[in-house]
Amino acid sequence: MEYVCIVCPNGCRLTVEPTQEGVVVKGHKCPKGEAYGRDEFIDPRRVVTAAVRTSDASYPFAPVKSDRPVAKKDVDAVLRHLYRLTVDLPVRRGAMCCTDCCGTGASIVFTRTLPPSSGGGAP
Amino acid sequence: MIAVKKIDSVVIGAGAAGMAAAEVIAQAGCSVALVDREEQTGGILLQCIHNGFGLHHFGRELTGPEYADEFSERVRAFPVEIFLETTVVNIVPHPGFSRVITCSALHGVTVFEATTIVLAMGCRERNRGTIGIPGTRPSGVFTAGLAQRLLNIEGYIPGRRAVIIGSGDIGLIMARRLTWVGSEVAAVVEILPHPSGLTRNIVQCLQDFSIPLLLSHAVTQIYGKDRVEGVEVAPLENGVPVAEKARIVACDTVLLSVGLIPENELSCTAGVTISPNTGGPVVDHRLQTSAAGIFACGNVLHVHDLVDFVTEEAQRCGGHVVDYLRNKIPAAASVAVEAGANIKYVTPNQCAAGTAQHFYLRPLVIREKAKLAVMQGQTPVFSRNLSHVRPAEMISIDLDNKIMGGLELDRPLTFSIR
Amino acid sequence: MNQSPFDVAIIGAGVCGAAIARTLSAYRLRVVLLEKEADVAFGVSKANSGIIHAGFHHPATSLKAKLEIQGNLMFEKLYYELGFPFKRVGVLVVAFSEEEMKTAAHLFSQGEENGVADLELCGAERVRALEPKVNRDAVGGLYAPGGGIIEPYRFVFALVECAIANGCVLSTGFDVSAVRRQREYFILAARSGRSVAARYAVNAAGLHADAVSAMFGAEQFTIIPRKGEEYLLDRGAEAFPNHVLFPVPAKKSKGILVIPTVEGTTMVGPTAVEVEDREDVSTSASNLKAVFAHAKHLMPSVSRRDIITSFAGMRPALATGDFYIAVSKKVPRLVQVAGIQSPGLTASPAIGEYVKELLKSCGCSLTEKPHFNPMLPKITTLRDCSPEAMEQIIAHNPQYGNIICRCETVSEAQIVEAIRKGHVTLDGIKFYTRAGMGRCQGGFCTYKILKILARETGKKMTEFTKRGGESVIVKETLSAALPRTRGAPP
């Protein structure tokens, strides 16, 4: 498999191949690049960010993120879960929105502090 | 009666730049008002709910709202007077102070008599009009930032099948966001032979979803009577669209991510000189504009690629404002700064011999292994090897007291890439 | 029948329909103004150049010249009454050769014959004194101080608003698709199923006047749509002229002009291309080039860098080249108002009077209303106000303190006013208030306007359109989101 390394602006083109001695990464200029290539091949992960519906018309959505990268294959499940949620205000930046989301081990946390409800519902 | 407030400093714009500058000014014990037209402090960061901010400044990866919240809390910890939902309608310079005229629904007209002003209004997006895409004028054509606001804060999906024009970072981020809400991104069309955004965004926002990136292509027509129905995409050869090779891509939405323009209409009312290279004010080594006591920082000065650099620049700007307020006599700005080969601009536009100076440079070229050379005439002043140069990445350079002390007076300092 | 019968139904709420409606609203008549689009002025009138022509372009024998001259002289009074943006800045035709000077001299005598006051044939120096930034190669020209500029859609809005205030009924989204007769009434049926009855009808349907005439079984004629592309330059553009600048006219059009707008922007254009499709208001890259080449010839400082937007409009021309305004010879009590291309905007108030006389001639009885109010309250805006004046305005209505459109300094109060007056599309609000018309083209204010619309009308954001029809702005709420897996498997 071929990847472009995103660790630094160099953007090394990596070739990753499984061999009998394990996964071999080529094309990297630094150890971070090698680790990136290996991870992308074996277990690619992404931080998920989204906006979660609130019960408040002034701030109808609250931004959230996963507190650690989740497996790429699980991103859709996490998003589907988040789109179904409705939370009440106030929320605090860093506070838990849901723990161990969809069994990924990652928790979802709010990324913005929003004040208490002013009444009214979201669209 | 109109309220008139005498104050040391008015900071216009409560985004990343304005908050950082206001914090520094307040920290030094000066009186400062932070004015913004929106309902919250934070600026455009609030709609950038993706991560990737703050690696330089905080040493960890934050989302836009987190980055903004950190500073919102910090300005609230100091006696910064915050005026939200307040619009500055005019700046009238007087000897020794400026009158900043503001209005809001809550306070009516408030006039600040400010010894200093920090311009921190940010920038606006280039739009369909500015780049002149021919065709009909249906709904469904959005700047990427407007679509981002509608989606991430208001909670509306702009459309179900989009073509994104321009491969700037906001466009790439929106490609992923649209995919994540179930819309299809038919293509990202870039007029240049290389992407304008960061590699990590190309990988994580396009490649992750197999979204085609059409380099050296242009959208040559927008179709649709009421709502967008499609666009015509043509490859470029020698910089010209080839009509015979054009094809129509069906879509109901067009997003534009084709560059940002510093928003300086207000600066112009204050009589500030604007640089044609940056689109922002011409500033001296203290980030002071051509109008005495009026300073500028952040995207209103020049468009930055990382918010971390905006913060850095704004904090330095705040420091200069404090020095100005304390009547610290600065070194004279004795050396002009010029962009040489392969550089679009360098800011600030002047520096002082003997005073350490920070510079930001915007390269014009893509190079592996290049050399940055700083010269005064034929005399080398400083050089640095760069492993990687591209227009999307600003170069940040510190020249220390010693280097700056060696400068001759009244000869321009030229930055170039070889 | 949805409503009790009207005396007069006017088909088309462009500038002609609007002017006719306002004129008739001074009389004891029940008048209905029917518009197929979502708002008034959304057809030909919105893409007009906004010029009040001086009256020298057309020969005295034409109906055009007669109504142009009459109309031109009516604008001071209209401005006083209705307060739309208007300035009599004067027009200047610039000649670049002795040959062109001959044409200018011809226009001069034509204008004199038409009765245009204060025309002046100028030499090179006089042209430069009047317009210092004009191309130095100009050898002379024709100056007409009586020419002027207005905001065309604002003019139409004001006419309609005044007509409504005096009892006229406006029906938008009313696309007349069939006409039948029942006793002394025309029954006009819309595609939507609505219908109105009226004793008299006025066909002011612009681009569709031929189709409407056919529905009545009246005269056969063909509207020849002629497209014009225009480019708008930002406030503060170097090229902003003192006068409306014309080249010496070409055969079918007045040429590519450089126009100062009342609001301080500069307009260049229009092109003049006959097209097949009446709805085809697209712009093209080749025309952009042509427009700028011509405009630069007049005014070298015209720069593409200053463009904030471009648009195209249609002229509803007839083969005769003249206006066709007459009582139908085939269908009694129908007045035809067709072929109203340039100088239609200038002529429109005179067309209103002319049509009134035609209606009278075919039996419509006109009794003046004792309480006709020709005046409209002035639109309040913060732009160019002193701080003291601003403070008073905001004290009176705090919504004026909330600036929604930063580029054009438009307050929330103005948006609310537009909505309450029935302008409930983004374009309608834009034309009424200028919000979204500036350099950011709605990049910052669109979502704010949508939120105000939702609040004021109680409708959902997904229901609002740019200009009616299928032109919705946002399609769904985030509740409808489902991630889309398109990526190749890892």
Kindly state the mean pLDDT of chain C as a whole number? 94
Percent of residues in β-strands of chain C: 15-25%
Radius of gyration of chain B from CA coordinates: 22 Å
Strand content of chain B: 35-45%
| Separation of the first and last Cα atoms of chain B | 61 Å
CATH class of the largest domain in chain C equals Alpha Beta
Largest interface by Cβ-Cβ < 8 Å: B-C, 61 and 69 residues
Distance between the termini of chain C: 65 Å
Give the total of beta strands of chain B: 29
Q: Kindly report the CATH topology of the largest domain in chain C.
A: FAD/NAD(P)-binding domain
Number of helices of chain B: 9
> How big is the Rg of chain C?
23 Å
| Mean pLDDT across every amino acid position of chain B | 95
Task: Name the shape of chain B in a single word.
Answer: globular
- Major sheet description of chain B: 7 strands, mixed
Question: Care to give the gist of this entry?
Answer:
The complex is a heterotrimer of chains A (123), B (418) and C (490). Chain A is of the alpha+beta class.
If you had to describe this structure to a student in words, what would you say it looks like?
The complex is a heterotrimer of chains A (123), B (418) and C (490). With 123 residues, chain A is of the alpha+beta class. Chain A has two domains: 2-42, no CATH class; 49-110, CPE0013-like fold, CATH 3.10.530.10. Helices cover 18% and strands 32% of the residues of chain A. Chain A has helices at 31-42, 75-84; strands at residues 2-4, 13-19, 22-26, 45-46, 49-54, 61-66, 70-71, 86-87, 96-98, 108-110. The termini of chain A are far apart. Chain B is of the alpha/beta class. Chain B contains nine helices and 29 strands. In chain B, helix 1 (16-27) packs parallel to helix 2 (64-77), helix 4 (144-154) crosses helix 5 (169-180) and helix 5 (169-180) runs parallel beside helix 6 (199-206). Chain B starts with a strand and ends with a strand. The relative contact order of chain B is 0.13. The mean pLDDT of chain B is 95. Chain C folds into three domains: 1-86 and 148-223 and 318-376, FAD/NAD(P)-binding domain; 87-147 and 224-314, D-Amino Acid Oxidase, subunit A, domain 2 (D-Amino Acid Oxidase, Chain A, domain 2), CATH 3.30.9; 387-479, BFD-like [2Fe-2S]-binding domain (Arc Repressor Mutant, subunit A, Orthogonal Bundle), CATH 1.10.10.1100. Chain C is 30% helix and 22% strand. In chain C, strands 1, 2, 9, 10, 11, 12, 19 and 20 form an eight-stranded mixed β-sheet that branches. In chain C, strands 13, 15, 16, 17 and 18 form a five-stranded antiparallel β-sheet that branches. The longest helix of chain C is centred in the last third of the chain and has 18 residues, at 344-361. Chains in contact: A-B, A-C, B-C.
